[in-house]
From TrEMBL:
Signal sequence residues: none
Gene Ontology terms: biological process: methylation
Pfam families: PrmA
Presence of keyword Transferase: yes
Domain of life: Eukaryota
Protein species of origin: Coccomyxa viridis
Record family assignment: Belongs to the methyltransferase superfamily. PrmA family.
Name of the protein: ETFB lysine methyltransferase
Amino acid sequence: MRQVEHIQDQEWLQSIRDSYQPARIDEGLWIIPSWCQPEDSSAVNIILEPGIAFGTGDHPTTRLCLKALLSLDLSGKSVMDYGTGSGVLAIAALKMGAAMACGTDTDQLAVRAAAQNAALNGLAGRFQAVQCEGSAEGPEPLAALACGAPSQSGAFDVIIANILQGPLLELSSRLCDYANSGGTIILSGFLDEQWPTIREAYEHELENFQVSQDGQWVAITGIKRDNQPLAVNPSLQSNVNA
Ligand SMILES: C[S@@+](CC[C@H](N)C(=O)[O-])C[C@H]1O[C@@H](n2cnc3c(N)ncnc32)[C@H](O)[C@@H]1O
C-alpha cells in the first residue's frame, strides 16, 4: 500500500513538473520553475515553485504587469504588490532594482508561497508578505508598517494590483492612498470592456494612463496626481478671514 502511494506521489509530482517549463516573458525576463536551470544567466530570472498560488507567468495579466514593470526605472524604489499570489511581481520588481517590496493577499497560502518564492530568489530580507481581509471596510493590512514603508503610512513609489474589477473598484481609494505623489500604479485583472469603469474610479487620483492589452485582458499604468491643496498666501488668507 505504502509503495502504491509513493508511486502515485512521484507521478503527481512529475505531472506538475511536466506542465511547467521556463517561460520567456520578454527580452531578458524569464520565469523559471525551481527545478530548472536558467538558460540565460544575464537575464532577470524569477525562480518560482509553481502550483501553490496564482502567478506562474502563464496568464496574460501577469505578463502584462511584468512588462509594465520592465518599462519603469525601479532603482531604489519601494513597491506594494496587492494580491501578490506567488509573489511573482514583487520578486520581479526587486530583481529589477527595487529596494524593498511588500506583498499582501487574502489567501494565507499565497502569502506563504510568496514568502517562500522570495527566499528561493535570495530576496527574503527585502520582501515581506502579510495577509489582508480584501475589503475596503476591513482593517488596513498594515502592510506598510510590516514592511517598513519608507515614509508616512503607506507611501510607496510603485503599487501593483493584478486583481479583478470588483476589488479594484472597491479598493481604489486605498490603493491610491498607498502611493506617493508622482508614484506609479499598475492595475490589471480586468477586461477591455471594463476599462472605462476602472478609469472613472481612478482618474481623479491618477493621470498619464498607459494602456496595454493581451487578448481581452488589459493592464494600465497611471501616475498619482499631486492633489495637495494649494498653499494659501498668508496675506490672502488674512483678507479671507477679515
Ligand atoms: C490574479 S491573481 C494575481 C497574482 C500575481 N500578483 C500575478 O500577477 O500573477 C490575484 C491574487 O489576488 C488575491 N486577491 C483577490 N482579491 C483580493 C483582495 N480583495 N485583496 C487582496 N488580495 C486579493 C487572490 O487571492 C490572488 O492571489
